[in-house]
Design a protein that fits this description.
With about 375 residues, the protein is an alpha/beta fold. It folds into two domains: about 140 residues, Rossmann fold, CATH 3.40.50; about 180 residues, 2-Layer Sandwich (Dihydrodipicolinate Reductase, domain 2), CATH 3.30.360.10. It is about 30% helix and about 25% strand. The protein contains eleven helices and 14 strands. Strands 8-9-10-7-11-12-13-14 form an eight-stranded mixed beta sheet. The protein has a six-stranded parallel beta sheet with strand order 3-2-1-4-5-6, sandwiched between helices. Strand 4, helix 4 and strand 5 form a beta-alpha-beta unit. Helix 5 runs antiparallel to helix 11. The chain is globular, with a radius of gyration of 21 Å. The two termini are about 30 Å apart.
């Protein structure tokens, strides 16, 4: 039986979520909620559901299984905490937009509340719910990558000095960490998905002179070195329209190990795998030969619409809730969203300390779901 869903927050992202729920056989969208009456009414009419203007009324009058929190706020996350906590307190599973919050203490409380109530808390970490990520997961699972050596992730927005326009929206203007808080959740979550937990962070952060001249406080250029728990190293480059991107497009992640490497381009569009060279093709530094790895697999999905990732991620959450998976096995969980935010906080701390090496705050310990595994 489809899960009964109510959505709170009906701006752009909320409508993308609503369209995904309407098209998914595992979802029964029954209500929408927005404090702006006109937005709620328009969405209710569009999707053929009931409109509410505050979450308390929606929870009181609707027998919901899931509350989908698509609100925004400062730095795209300051309105996530209260509706999530209210829905969890009411006994509802929650899918919340990223970042899980723009405040690390709130994020920790959200994850703790879901654990206390024994409810599912998912985060919309949609960048690795793609056919390209699935194929990359197969390379790793089959041992084709081997022991992790490095991960390089480049993600942001194409732009230039000529194309720059100050974003004076009240949710962004005057907040130096807005880009980092709102956006780094995605690349950090992708790096952790493929490479595991991050144990060390070192960040170098800047903004170009044209932003400074415009009075724009946003720290829009982020170069972040990381070390993974398994010993691999990584680098994340993110920028918010300060320069054009070259090879790999606006989004690329390259993961290389002792047996092979893969690179995903533009999130959902293409993944290429290179097999590690045998002795006849390996580099010989003494002879100044660089060697060559052979391309052995390419998946070009033909998908150019990034918004396709939302429906894929939302379906995964619906699938996990429907199947009653152990809470610690929920894909893109609240804990996963918290991990990405902990890394972001560590990057901000490193920047404030002049590029010092910072260890992220420990994540909540996984205790397992009682009864989910044999004794």
């Amino acid at each position: 039986m489809p899960l009964k869903v109510g959505i709170i927050g009906l701006r752009g992202i909320g409508n993308v979520h609503a369209q995904a729920h309407k098209a998914d056989p595992l979802s029964n969208l029954v209500a929408v909620c927005d404090i702006v009456k006109e937005r709620a009414d328009a969405a209710a009419k569009k999707y053929g559901v009931r409109a509410y203007y505050n979450l308390t009324d929606m929870l009181r009058n609707e027998d919901l299984d899931i509350v989908d929190v698509a609100t925004g706020g400062y730095e795209n996350g300051s309105w996530h905490f209260e509706p999530t906590m209210e829905a969890l307190e009411a006994g509802k599973h929650v899918l919340v937009e990223k970042p899980i919050s723009n405040d690390i203490n709130e994020a920790r409380q959200m994850v703790a509340k879901a654990a206390e109530k024994q409810l599912y808390l998912g985060v919309n970490l949609n960048h690795y719910f793609t056919p390209t990520a699935d194929r990359a997961d197969e390379y790793i699972a089959k041992g084709q990558v081997g022991e992790l050596v490095y991960c390089l992730h480049k993600v942001g927005f194409n732009g230039s000095e000529a194309a720059y326009q100050p974003n004076t929206n009240w949710r962004w203007w005057g907040f130096p960490y807005a880009h980092m808080k709102a956006f780094l959740t995605h690349p950090f979550s992708v790096m952790r998905h493929f490479c595991g937990d991050i144990t060390h962070v070192q960040a170098f952060v800047e903004r170009p002179s044209f932003r400074k001249k415009a009075g724009d406080a946003m720290l829009s250029i982020n170069g972040i070195n990381v070390k993974f728990a398994n010993g691999g190293i990584g680098y994340l480059l993110s920028q918010r329209g300060d320069a054009p991107f070259g090879l790999g497009g606006w989004w690329s992640v390259e993961v290389s190990g002792t047996r092979g490497a893969f690179c995903i381009e533009n999130c959902i569009e293409k993944v290429t795998f290179w097999e590690g060279p045998d002795p006849t093709r390996a580099a010989n530094p003494g002879a100044m030969t660089m060697g060559m790895a052979a391309v052995t697999d390419v998946l070009d999905t033909g998908i150019k619409d990034f918004n396709a990732t939302f429906a894929l991620r939302i379906h995964a959450f619906l699938e996990d809730v429907t199947n009653g998976v152990p809470r610690d096995q929920l894909r893109a969980s609240g804990r996963d969203g918290l991990a990405a935010l902990e890394y972001t906080w560590a990057a901000m701390e490193s920047y404030e300390q002049g590029g010092a090496l910072v260890r992220p705050h420990p994540l909540p310990i996984l205790h397992g779901t009682p009864g989910a595994t044999p004794d």
